[in-house]
Amino acid sequence: MCSIEEDVAKKLHVSEDKKCCKCKTSRSTILIRHNELCKECFVYQMYSKYKTIVTKCNVTKNVLIAFSGGFCSRAMVHLSMKPYREDPARRKMLDFTMCFVDDRFINDFDDASEDMYKELATMSKAQFCDYAKSCFNLKDDEIKAFLINNPYLYQSVIRRIIVEKAKEASCSFALFGDSATKTAANILANVSDGRGFSLPLDTGISDPSEQNLMIVRPMSDHIEKEISLYCHFEGLKPSEYFVKDSSTNTHSLTMNFIRGLDKDFPSTVSTVVRTGLKVTTGIINSTNPCCKFCGRKRQGNDSEWSKAITIASISKEAVENSHTDGDVCFGCIRMKK
Q1: Most Cβ neighbours (<10 Å): which of 26, 98, 132, 336?
Q2: Can you tell me where the transmembrane regions are (predicted)?
Q3: Distance CA 236, CA 72 (A)
Q4: Is residue 52 a part of any domain in this protein?
Q5: Based on the structure, what is the number of domains in the chain?
């Protein structure tokens, strides 16, 4: 995302002779997916897409917003508070809580984490809402390296913490700031990692798997380019705590692939996301037990699936011993190898 901010000026398409395709009056200054827009129409379009998803999921009150300090979460907070900033009378009805998960053990940014707490407290006061924080610290270097190299499990830990905080605060909804670009990358990465069964919950607009809590992704129709431009126009800057991911795992490589492809083919992200949304696996109504690692429902016969694609000619006994976990999903079995 840092590279996106640096190239913001290049993404502002200035056309002296063309009008905005929405209002037909103002001069277009932005090019998004072959659509030339003026600044006012672009900002309105951002809020309109956000509101469409929020309304579709019936998000009303008792809402927790997952805040990381990056572009997406900042834009999500700003869009969530837009009606209340414009109408002071509605602030009495405001029922939002922002949650920040302190994962400083990954990057060892103690000072940045403390600055993040101060910023979050200031932001919450300005937005007239409460905020919650959670911190988990691991001193075991092996576990730390394991989570860094397995972003799906790392995100599962973050999701679990946010869900618990939402339930403690008696929230009915939890908003996650996953952009369309991130969702597209997660769809491809999860399928390649053998996690296709949980795809509707991991990448869908909503996740109803938690009891008395609905996880909603209201930014899932916004690509990174749109979000970076919106933050640029609104003066929203990412925290120093939010750093660019330099790891080389499957998810990071897929994200870089999607970003590069989307530059030349602007419909790439939307095509992958809409195709992924059509996937149905039956996990929502599944009564199968959950995986002891990632917490998602298992498809069933996961060990048998793993055995079927395993080359066992080197040591048959070693391969058989590696599939003794009957309570681990197929994706986690592959991860353990």
Answers
A1: 98
A2: none
A3: 10
A4: yes
A5: 2
Altogether, the residues listed in the chain come to a count of 337
Between 74 and 84, residue with greater pLDDT: 74
**Of 325 and 204, the one with more pLDDT:** 204
End of a domain among 265, 285, 305? 285
What pLDDT is attached to residue 134? 65
- pLDDT digits over 260-306, tens only? 998 888 889 999 999 999 988 888 888 888 888 888 888 877 666 66
Q: Is residue 15 part of a domain?
A: no
d(C-alpha 102, C-alpha 239), whole Å: 13
Q: How far apart are CA 36 and CA 13, in angstroms?
A: 8
DSSP state of 72: H
HSE-CB of 159 using CA atoms within 13 angstroms:
23
User: Cα separation of 290 and 75, whole Å?
Assistant: 33
17-26, 41-50, 73-82, 253-262, range with the lowest pLDDT: 17-26
The whole-angstrom separation of Cα 71 and Cα 5 is 9
- R_g (Cα) of the chain, nearest Å: 21
* Residues 111, 119 contacting (CB under 8 angstroms): no
What's at 89, amino acid-wise? A
Report d(CA 215, CA 104) in Å as an integer.
24
Is 41 exposed, middle or buried (CB count within 10 Å of its CB: 0-12, 13-18, 19+)? buried
DSSP 216: E
Contacts of 48 (CB under 8 A, 6+ apart): none
Same domain for 214 and 132: yes
331 three-state secondary structure: helix
**94-110, pLDDT tens digit by residue?**
678 888 887 666 555 55
**Cβ partners under 8 Å of residue 256, min gap 6:** none
Instruction: Give the list of residues 6+ apart from residue 249 with CB closer than 8 angstroms, or none.
Output: 149, 150, 151
pLDDT tens digits, 123-180: 766 555 666 666 655 556 667 777 777 888 888 888 988 998 899 888 999 999 999 9
